[in-house]
Amino acid sequence: MPELQIVLSFLVTALVLELTPGPNMAWLAMLSATAGRVAGLAAVAGITLGLAVQAVLAALGVAAAIEAWPWLYRVLHIAGVG
Q1: Would you say 66 and 58 are in contact if contact means Cβ atoms under 8 Å apart?
Q2: What's the CA angle centered on 51, arms 82 and 9, to 5 degrees?
Q3: Separation of alpha carbons 80 and 51, rounded Å
């Protein structure tokens, strides 16, 4: 089990990153302002779905599989672009 100080450091860092607006937030604000609430919410849903898939894949250990089989990275990359 990780030490408490390491876990707390991670949680503080994650919190700061989540609270800091970046280009993603600027794009969402601009999209919502120009295309409306429905388009903005659809974009947020898409981003959330993508992040959820990424989190599940990370939890399942896909990173280790990608390291073992570099062609798998290429397949995931092309699928992500699609």
Answers
A1: no
A2: 145
A3: 12
64, 72, 24, 31: which is closest to 48 by C-alpha?
A: 24
Regarding pTM above 0.85, the answer is no
Nearest-angstrom CA–CA distance, 57 and 16: 24
**Cα 81 to Cα 2: distance, rounded to the nearest angstrom:** 36
Which residues touch 28 (CB under 8 Å, ≥6 apart)? 40, 43, 44, 47
37-68 residue pLDDT tens = 999 999 999 988 988 988 888 888 888 888 89
Report how far residue 34's alpha carbon sits from residue 23's, in angstroms, rounded to the nearest whole number.
16
